[in-house]
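anyone seen this seq b4? input:
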Amino acid sequence: MALNGNYVVRETTANLTRNITLTVASILTVFVSLAIVGTTVLMRQGAQNATSRFEGGVEFIVYVNADSSAEQIKAVETSLDKNPGIKKTTYVDADETYADFKRLFAGQDAMLRNVRKADLPTSFKVEPVNKDAATISDLVRTYRKEPNVYDVVAAVEVVREMKGITNFVNNGLTFFAVFLLLASGLLILNTIRTAMFARRREIEVMKLVGATNWFIRIPFMLEGLVQGLVGGGLAVGWVFIARHLIDDLLGKSSNLKLLQNFSIASGDVAWACTIVVGVAVLLSVISSALATRRFLDV
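predicted toks r here
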């Protein structure tokens, strides 16, 4: 028996509206669970961005006052070069600093509007000879007292701060996301089971006149897919809202240590949305397939 497009649309719509309360509950549960998944991805990407400066052996960064003259910057560089505990220094000038800032805060219009190149402190990325925590801490304390130094940030400090965020994400949000995803799957499965049970007589008649199992399954599977996609679409909207809330929070900050801030780029938002949609499709397809396979003989 060949499938007819009008038949599929009509039956899928009927299934979705037959028990509207259960359908809405399924969609909302999918939305909440996927919103948590999307937020988790944003948090992880933001934490990775915050630590991306410490690459290639860089253990701490010395920020120079934004209004420092060339001679003052040279004095800081000389002090670093003459220190026997420092293996290598790399100066990040104003152009490179601003380019990094625009990359890290791409799409965050409030930040980009309110910050000029002259507002950003240039810096020296420093690779010490000895990379144990005690030695780095001593060097950090030393250079925080140097003239014309705005601040010194060590990798161990940033990683420790980011570890608190990622631990919260991994242990808290992930637990709730998994729990709610399971609940979403069960709700979709139960919605389809209810629809199939309500139409058990029709299904029996369809089988008697030669309808295949797949002919019967398709509208029910599409019902689950629609629920998953609607919930996923709402969650995608939440991802943009969450990113906007973070933008506002960062934009209102008076802290000029801008390159240390937790940041979420446009690519991170796209990646979070892709994961949300992918999980939505996977969740709905698996739940629908299990439901139609298990409850078809009604």
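The longest strand covers residues 86-92. Strands lie at 60-64, 86-92, 123-128, 149-154. kinda curious what u guys think
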